[in-house]
Design a protein that fits this description.
The chain has about 220 residues and is an alpha/beta fold. The chain has helices at about 5-15, 55-65, 75-95, 115-125, 190-195, and strands at about 20, 35, 40-50, 100-105, 125-130, 140-150, 165-170, 175-180, 200-205, 215-220. It has one domain. The strands form 2 sheets. The chain has an 8-stranded mixed beta sheet.
Amino acid sequence: MKTQSEEIFEKFCADCGISCHRIDERDEKAADYELSLSGTDVIFEVKEFERNKEEKESDRLLEERGYGKCLSNVPGDRVRSKLRKASPQIKRLTDGVKPGVLILFDRGYLYGHNDPYNILVAMSGLEQIHISVPNNPNKSPYATGMSHGPKKKMTETANTSISAIGTMYFKDNGVTQIDLYHNKYAAVSLVAERLAVYGIDQYFMYEGDGVPTSEWKKYEP
C-alpha cells in the first residue's frame, strides 16, 4: 500500500512529465523508484516523517487549547535517522553507476524537520563555536571561530550513494514543490542543468571566504 508521500511524489512526476518506474514495493531492501530525468536514470527513495510521541501530544494540546507544547530536538537528528535507513536501499540499486536521491516529506511543510538548516547539519555536522580560555583569570573567554562538528553523515566515505537530499512540500498555492540539496561527496553527481527544466530548485553547499561554516547557495541556471 502506497504512503501519502509516495502518492504525492508520483503525482508530481506525472504533472512534470517525468517517466517514473515503481520498483517492486515488496522488496523493502530496495529504493522506491527509478526516474528518467533528461535522459539520466536516477534512483529515488521517498520517506515521510511520522509524528513521534512528543509531537502527537503537542498536536493534541494544539487542538484542545489552541497552542501546543515546546518541542526539543537535536538539529538534523530526524533527517539523520532517515538517512541511516535509506542509504543501503539506495546503494543497492545505484552501485556507483547511477545517481540516488532521498526525498523527505513532512506533512507538506517546508519547515520543521525539512528545514534547510536541518538538512545542512545532518549532512555536514552540528555547528560548534570554538572558545579560547586565556591563562590570565582576569580575562574573559572569547570565541575564536566556528566549524562543523559531530553527527556528520556525508563524507568522502559515508553515504556517497546519495547524490542529493530532496524536500517535498506544498507551496502557498497548494502546488507540490521539490527542492534538492546536493551532496558534494556523491559518487555520482546529479547534473543541475538537467533537473532545472522540471522546476526543481537546487542548492549547493557553499564554503567561501568569510563563511565560518557551510551554507546553501541556490543554483541559478
